[in-house]
Design brief:
The chain has 9 helices and 12 strands. It is an alpha+beta fold. A 4-stranded antiparallel beta sheet has the order 6-5-7-8. Strands 1-2 form a two-stranded antiparallel ribbon.
């Protein structure tokens, strides 16, 4: 069941990505020969409105084959009026951007659904108070629930974390303890901590940790849109930053996951709850959008770079440059996929 769920989720994400390319290409008058979910030998095809729709043997991606799109053999490029190559570079870039944009849009829609259906957050209930910390000195205790800081209502642990980080000075905490409302004045202290990439950072803290307790938050239709926007932006920044840290060597290459890891995460989420499945699907959709924008020639980002080059220099890249860079891009991409699979196998064997 887990494998089936993984293939369904991946197929939907790929379909949405390719549908983005397809829709803008058709809107700009480009003929699309093939719209395939999967690679390799076609298992099922149907001709509809001039396009061959297909499911192919290897269900780990997909592609849209447009008329005139011949990156590996520019000599075969077609310049008819309904060809991809006949478009000016700016319009080609629009087609290329449409795929990642569709993934961001899908994630946004999924986050709206999550907000409306109810999203689990860590409760603002204190599980531990660090000895001699600002919270301990002020009098906060284990099992206290923080319901307000200054004039801001607190619903989740993330709410109070954001306020503490941006505090210009002392904060007034309103605490619910044994059914009674109490208030405390606490001044956050700058202390050494670690971020999600295990880097040492300076962070404002008061010396408390959350209790292992969840609270489900339901958002109104308007609030769910705000929630979805914030989560999509947050996920995009996290993935871009993760790629940057990986290139810098801060994140070890052993952290790269492959198709087995993705399948395992989706399977576990589907067994946990429908909301968990939606959440991980939204995150993977953002991941797919971000990674496709990387300037690697085999990806959308690499093709965007070729077109930007043409816009700036007023001439297309040479055939030799185009072929060599595209091959190099595929080598990088296959290398990363192989590394991810190698790490997956090591985790399984370990």
């Amino acid at each position: 069941m887990g494998i089936i769920t993984f293939l369904i989720v991946l197929s939907i994400l790929v379909f949405v990505h390719e549908l983005g390319h397809f829709s803008v290409a058709r809107a700009l008058g480009v003929k699309v020969h093939v719209f395939s979910i999967g690679f390799g030998k076609k298992l099922w095809t149907k001709e509809w409105k001039g396009t061959q729709w297909a499911f192919s043997m290897i269900p780990l991606g997909g592609y849209v084959k447009m008329k005139g799109q011949e990156d590996l053999n520019p000599a075969l490029a077609n310049h008819d009026s309904d060809s991809y190559q006949s478009l000016p570079p700016f319009q080609r870039i629009l087609i290329l951007l449409a795929g990642p944009f569709a993934n961001f849009l899908l994630a946004f829609v999924l986050y709206i659904a999550i907000g409306l259906l109810g999203n689990n957050h860590i409760s603002p209930t204190i599980g531990k108070v660090v000895e001699n910390s600002p919270a301990a000195i002020a009098g906060l205790q284990q099992n206290d629930t923080i319901i307000q800081i200054n004039d801001t209502k607190i619903q989740t642990w993330d709410d109070l974390s954001d306020i503490i980080q941006n505090a210009p000075g002392a904060l007034k905490f309103y605490i619910q303890r044994d059914g009674e409302l109490k208030s405390f004045i606490i001044r956050p202290k700058l202390s050494e901590s670690q971020n999600i990439f295990r880097e040492k950072i300076q962070k404002k803290m008061i010396g408390i940790a959350p209790a292992p307790k969840l609270v489900k938050i339901y958002y109104s239709p308007l609030d769910s849109i705000v929630f979805a926007y914030d989560k999509t932006i947050e996920a995009s920044k996290m993935i871009f930053l993760g790629v940057q840290k990986l290139i810098q060597g801060i994140v070890p290459h052993t952290e790269i996951g492959g198709v087995i890891t993705i399948g395992s995460v989706i399977s576990e989420a589907s067994q946990s709850s429908f909301i968990a499945l939606l959440t991980i699907s939204a995150l993977i959709s953002v991941n797919l959008g971000v990674l496709n924008l990387l300037p690697i020639p085999a990806l959308d980002g690499g093709h965007i770079m070729f077109n930007l080059y043409e816009m700036i220099t007023r001439r297309a890249p040479s055939e030799k440059m185009l072929i060599n860079l595209t091959i190099a891009g595929w080598v990088i991409l296959i290398g990363l996929m192989s590394l991810g699979l190698y790490n997956d196998i090591n985790r399984l064997l370990g």
